[in-house]
Amino acid sequence: MRAAFAYEWVRIRTIRSTWWLTALAVVFGVGISTLFSWAIHHDFTSSGINESDLDGLAPIVTTQLSASGHVPSVVCFILAILGIFAWGHEYRHGMIRASLTALNSRSALWTAKYVVVGIWVAVVATVTMLLSALVATIFLHDFVTVFTAQTWGVIGRQVLYGVLLTWLAMAFTSVTRSQAFALVSIFLWPLLIEVLITFFFQLVPGLRDHTEVLRFLPFSAGSRMVDVLTSSSGTFSDPLSALGGTIVFGGLAAAVMVASYALFEKRDA
What we know:
The chain is 73% helix and 0% strand. By secondary structure, it is mostly helical.
């Protein structure tokens, strides 16, 4: 197992796409928070503020608006591509045979990939949000305290969401063995498929009375993990609580990971 971790640590550090995606996540994340913080500062300074304008403002800026519950996390989706490449490069370039020959343990290789990539994503996501919170402090210190218990809690849940999303993307790539299909699917499902399903439920008369089931759509549930603007009355109520969203989204990631492991153990390289 130790050799597998060393192997994956070297692999992730020596692939150029790792560093490009890491830099892109940090630049985009901090850049979005900077622009948003500057715009809010300018608006508050010129036209004044209302108390309602400050509700959840700190975690929303820190998470690049994803804590509003309406905007997908740009940083997490960029970092999820690292997970796709972790398996995608192996199958696309035929390196999986060399990897298995070097390690001679499928379970060790599988475990090492998820752990190493998960740690990398967690560190980059944490650093990005801390820098974003620092930027928000510089611009908005006259209006709101950024580093509060609520902000720290949202940062932790956002990091967890990023790791789960990355593991889900990894597992899906491992199951399909198609890097291109996984790249398309990871963006297509939350941005189009779930939107179409929601629209379908609202459009068809017989389904309008059952829209409450839409809260269990995986990415809709995942967004509840960091949403600070919508309150919940229970874990699986409508809307889901942060815990409920974690269970639904994490459950999907775990299920696809189990399928990934089972197929990886049985299929030919």
